[in-house]
Amino acid sequence: MSTLVEFARIVDEAARTASAIPQLTETHPALSAEEAYAVQALSVARRRTRGEKRAGYKMGLTSRAKMQQVGVSEVIWGRLTDAMRVEEGGELSRARFVHPRAEPEIAFIMRRPLEGRVTAAEALAAVEAVSPAIEIIDSRYKDFRFALPDVIADNSSSSGFLLGAWYRPETDVANLGLLVEVDGQVVQVGSSAAILGHPLRSLVAAARLIAAAGERLEPGDIVLAGGATAAHALSPGQFVRAEFEGLGSVSFTVVS
Ligand code: 0L1
Ligand code: MG
């Protein structure tokens, strides 16, 4: 256990100070996914001790594009805190991150608790609203390279998120065209169907996977369903905008 506590300190300090670290599996190749989720929980507990509040969960590696980009092939999850929220239309400070990337997502906010094995209909009935979103991911590992346990321990690269307007839960988000522009140039084009075939499937997976850690989705939790395209690297001066068919856009400016 003390090794896991030390790993939690290492990944948390790397995130807090925006410093790149070597992969944990370099020195501990036997680190399991289960142990890595324990490290994640311990590192987020450190954030809570500093005053950060629970905001929900993120699902990761939910599209083929994302799996190919990082060479890992399993859906993973991480925890969100209020300190990760960036105001829509606002500024994102590059200095707070090691090597941030942005990806377009669909977000849910929960109306009712959701837990364990549920159907898509049960998941939808627990949703208060859906919104277009951008996730800011930032691996704390050198060169954005990691094995599956490394990235899980590093809170599945959670580091920021922006939410657009909220829409009624029955809004059809199954196959919405979307694009990401940087300074007016299109850099990614995709569809929300890339998120496990339907973003709602990601919510179903979230309820099941989170239950394995003894947790459940609570009213007010935000769930980021996963990236619909590969993620785009961010640099100071960029104006980033994601446009979602029928749901409007979400944007921010990267400052130093
Ligand atoms: O949100 C994601 O799909 C990212 C999960 C972790 C892998 C990465 O950092 O790209
Ligand atoms: Mg993501």
From TrEMBL:
Q: Where is the Fumarylacetoacetase-like C-terminal domain?
A: 88-255
Q: Which InterPro entries match?
A: Fumarylacetoacetase-like_C (IPR011234), Fumarylacetoacetase_C_sf (IPR036663), Hydratase-Decarb/MhpD_sf (IPR050772)
Q: Does the keyword 4Fe-4S apply?
A: no
GO molecular function terms listed in the Swiss-Prot or TrEMBL record:
2-oxopent-4-enoate hydratase activity
Q: Which keywords does this Swiss-Prot/TrEMBL entry list?
A: Lyase
| One GO location term (cellular component) | cytoplasm
Name by which UniProt lists this protein: 4-oxalocrotonate decarboxylase
